[in-house]
Design brief:
By secondary structure, the chain is α+β, with helices and mostly antiparallel strands. It has four helices and seven strands. It has a seven-stranded mixed beta sheet with strand order 1-2-3-4-5-7-6, sandwiched between helices.
Length: 179
Amino acid sequence: MATDPLQVRDAAPADIAAIQSIYAHHVLNGLATFEEVPPSVEEMRRRYADISGAGLPYLVAELDGAPAGYAYCALYRTRSAYRFTLEDSVYVRHDMLGRGLGSALLAELVRRAQALGYRQLVAVIGDSAHLASIALHARHGFLPVGTLRSTGFKFGRWVDSVLMQRPLAEGDATHPVNR
């Protein structure tokens, strides 16, 4: 049982081994990601450097002095017209699910993405049966915008991707500031 309060903070290089462990469990046991082989710590370090180096939020939920979840925003797509849209990713340690860590992480991602001037946040949720992630995103203002049927094949079956989206700040009501 956790005794220290939950702290959401910027991820640091020292967190990457714990982040890799959290993610590896999801890769090997779940459909939240369509990766099938867990990336190495070195690969996770590279991904962290790319995202944080671009000035995008990469967060850790720390409980009892150790990372119990992490989340980040990445560019939704790299073509220039997508420059005001980010995609979120949220992962919680398998033994910490249902304790509000994902909600704390997603709330802070939304806040930071909006503060950075982004206008849309997209969630690409692996598996249309991943009701916890769909509900989490809905609680944070995301609306379902589509389901891509059978876009992944993992664990011997076809898996859908659920698309959800929420506006940030003024969304598409005004022209954005040039980026």
